Amino acid sequence: MKSKICVVGLGYWGPLLVRNFSNIENVDLYVYDLDEKRKMDIVGKYDVKVFRTFKEMLDSNVDAVILATNPLSTHYELGKQILMAGKHLWLEKPMTATTDEAEELIKLAKENKVLLHVDHTFEYSPHIRQIKRILDAKELGDILYVSMDRLNLGLYQQDYDVIWDLCPHDFSILNYWFGIPNNLRVMESCKSFDYADIANIHLSYDTFVVDIRASWRHYEKVRKTVIVGSKKILVYDDVAIHKIIVHGTNVEYKDGKYQYFKELTPDPKIYELWEPLAKESEHFVKCIQKGIKTDTPGESGLAVMRLLEKCL
After folding, report:
1. Structural domains in the chain?
2. What's the rounded Cα separation, in Å, for the pair 98 and 91?
3. Counting runs of H as helices and runs of E as strands, what totals does the chain give?
4. pLDDT in tens, 173-209
5. Nearest one of 32, 27, 43 to 10, comparing CA atoms
6. From CA 89, how far away is CA 80, in angstroms rounded?
């Protein structure tokens, strides 16, 4: 039996969602946007049906709604209406503008017995999951330090800063790899216009620390994470051809002196590659059809929201 799914919001991210859900066989796809041109552009590219109004969509027999609207303030108000209409909800990041709003959406989803899924796409990446296996197997030894760079030129958002735009990715990845950090503080931030567009964040766990750099003002796109362990160092570069490289580079203290050594290990073999958003889309459809829990439920979105609010 096919699921009826509607993508609401066809700006930057919406068309990517339409492309991925349109590739799933057991889905009838609908779209809605306030902008008529955006709707017509999508109709010209994909086999989709169009709703004329948001209310028409709410009153329909659509099973689930993918909410990808801007500004951020729309997430709570529209998400609330969708859940109260008894429809499953896929919500883009950041989940809401406040943790109180996120908690209410989680409560509404439970009361209406529907699924609330938060789009933390990187948790569905084959490389992020491979690194999780490496960490769980203790191949790097004890973790000593992690650095994460998420830098690019733009895209400036309407109603939130660079931390709320870029760092949900890093926060969700860290929560997936290591759990919730003990402490967080913004070391410095630079505000060029209405919102901060450069930020440095420091997080601490029981035995190691993490530094995150986020920027809308960098001259090139950088997506690099370095995990320093007591045995090996892992470099994850999401814009490189070889995304994961493990270095044997390390330091030992022996016979009263420091000894340095270097050894390069080829990329850990990943047996299957996939597009993270495609994997996530298929997972969401499976969850709503079989009535199972999503890997990134509202609670995971709330955990990220709490870190974002600490940055304030």
Report:
1. 3-120+277-311 (3.40.50.720), 123-274 (3.30.360.10)
2. 14
3. 9, 16
4. 999 999 999 999 998 888 888 889 999 999 999 999 9
5. 32
6. 10
